């Protein structure tokens, strides 16, 4: 096991972390698949309204690679398909029946200690709808299985605020996790399991965890690990998977059924109950928050992390990858002489608020706390960037469309953690520059 | 209550400044005023959903707060020196109120004229007014001699804001420190009002008979006049400038610059708050001391007296303490990379001493030193960035 000390990054001390309490959520009446929020894919529908589907029936494929399938997380009837602007498929809503019928996939051939072919595993994973859980650095698209990556990184931590704690979702599921890992070992030269120093799981022998870090958000990110261990550009195209998704993989290969179980964290200062729910992929947001939200009109519902997630509406559903829902105050109020407050309760990376001495978790809202200005070179962004980018200089080369320079600044190493935008004194959305520049570059390349 | 009323007043008058309103062209002024009272209620549109509580206004306010002790001392000292030379009462109230009469008009002119330009450029460019000017507008009068005519102050701040900043594109894009640029302009355009022994103290109208010209000389001027082989420390002491007095600051000089002690206090505050770079400040102090000692070592019997001065005197005399604490650390005109900040600070220290010693005509070396290093800051950054990027594993 390798110990890493990741110095940069930042942990917010904020209120709303879920308690390690786990409850079963009542079975929802609907579930949905949200193609819109899966980056890069070009979905082609295989179903239409009114069709009957089982758990594991294919709903759509990715036109870019028709072998990549996305399956139904429920058995029942396609209630409706919601489109957004320019005909993007927003939601495929399934009304659940009571049968819970499931498509059976042939996974028996992978049992035992036989040597099986990598291609066969990949094919089975694609058919079984779980391939999309494996993604590829640096663009974070679904992995393209045309080569054997140096590393496949399993990130097993929750440094982003309000994300599910692996201690909670791994409880009693460690065997699924181990099965998942043994499958993953066929896909890459090395499988790295990356977690924090504090992480303890008695069932988890140390030869399962390969890397432990001490550090702050986003030290648990696969891109951050890669940045700290790679020696050669050939390692850049690494694959990664989320800890909780390894359970789904394990479950798929143990049962032959498309796995839909999820452990979802409900968190944030406006959540009356901050806890975990056992539920399923595509659960309605409303089912999660009904009766558990304080001050609904003032709340923003953030699915998938306050630094990287998306704003969800109450009528919508949780996405395919997302496993948390944070309820944050929008914070639309102006403040008299805001800039002169002592700020014992103001979360800040800077040392310009008395909250620096405050040990208690603070309330955070979605206010910008200021207006955008030109960069004043304060250097805060470079102090937090976990992959040693110099955002204040790199973003200028991106803005000037100098792609060579931006690449040499390590633009592609950006893990899109959003910390630089968070800390920026001038309220510049630096991370947004990196994200969109990466996307443009990726789309040009393929 | 009061704030409620102010808020209402803003809401009521907003229409005049918006599209279609009569005063639309000065919307940035309205906006800046409103934002001064009320932190705007903007919220994040997308990721990251949360943002830090700091903003540029708070950042700049901290610099202003750090300047205040020096500022108030500067007011007192300007009044004190004036009353001293004019033979008026030296008690605190008398000195301070005299100081107010000297300093406040300058501050007022600096802010008013500077804001005029800021608003003009903001309106033309349809930008927001940057808070950087809160600092520039206060810094500028503090580095002027108290006797400077108001029209020159107006001209200086105009030059600083327009040439030092706006032609580069405004706060954040300027290469030079605007306040220093304005000061340097005055120095070269109106040397008579910026140098010499008579500019550092406002002389009262009455009792002019008691004026003792020499008591108006600044410590730097005294030092520069020292003849070969003379001992500057002794000479200064003879004029009443003990080290302690130089350190505390009750001597003639630019309004805000004389108290090294309060500059250190302000610098400490800014360093602790993470706003001023300790690398620049310590680098500067090291630069002064090492150059000073080096000169001490080469100094011989027949060399100029300046060479043998105790280097610590350089730290407390003239504008060095002020310059290194508040001017050199201006993040916009300083390098952004951490290691070259040492180089930058150090070079400012070295240059300050060298200019003082070898070119006594400009007794105030720190101003030139900082402006000169401002020019090199982008190059220093460039070098460090290149070296650093070389170490990255490429990812393309
Ligand atoms: S550049 Fe910004 S978003 Fe990208 S890794 Fe660094 S801190 Fe995170
Ligand atoms: S945090 Fe913002 S203002 Fe500060 S250096 Fe970075 S980009 Fe510039």
Structure report:
The complex is a heterodimer of chains A (446) and B (396). Chain A has 446 residues and is α/β, with parallel strands linked by helices. Among the domains of chain A are: 2-12 and 113-255, Rossmann fold (3-Layer(aba) Sandwich); 28-96, RNA polymerase II/Efflux pump adaptor protein, barrel-sandwich hybrid domain (OB fold (Dihydrolipoamide Acetyltransferase, E2P)); 368-445, no CATH class. Chain A is built from eleven helices and 21 strands. Chain A has helices at 118-127, 166-170, 174-184, 222-229, 243-255, 285-289, 380-384, 391-399, 403-408, 419-423, 430-445; strands at 2-5, 22-24, 30-33, 43-45, 52-53, 58-62, 65-71, 76-83, 89-96, 135-136, 141-142, 151-155, 190-196, 211-214, 239-242, 261-267, 275-280, 299-303, 310-312, 324-329, 335-336. In chain A, the strands form four sheets. Chain A has a seven-stranded mixed sheet. In chain A, strands 2-17-16-20-18-19 form a six-stranded mixed sheet. A four-stranded antiparallel sheet of chain A has the order 3-9-8-5, with no helix packed on it. The radius of gyration of chain A is 22 Å and the shape is globular. The two termini of chain A are 37 Å apart. The model of chain A has no long low-confidence stretch (mean pLDDT 92). Chain B is mainly alpha-helical. Chain B folds into two domains: 57-194; 227-381, no CATH class. Chain B is 62% helix and 1% strand. In chain B, helix 4 packs across helix 5. Chain B is globular and about 75 Å long. Chains A and B meet through strand 21 and helix 10 of A and strand 1, helix 3 and helix 17 of B. Strand 21 of chain A pairs antiparallel with strand 1 of chain B, so a sheet runs across the interface. The site of one iron/sulfur cluster has 16 residues of chain A, from helix 10 and helix 11.
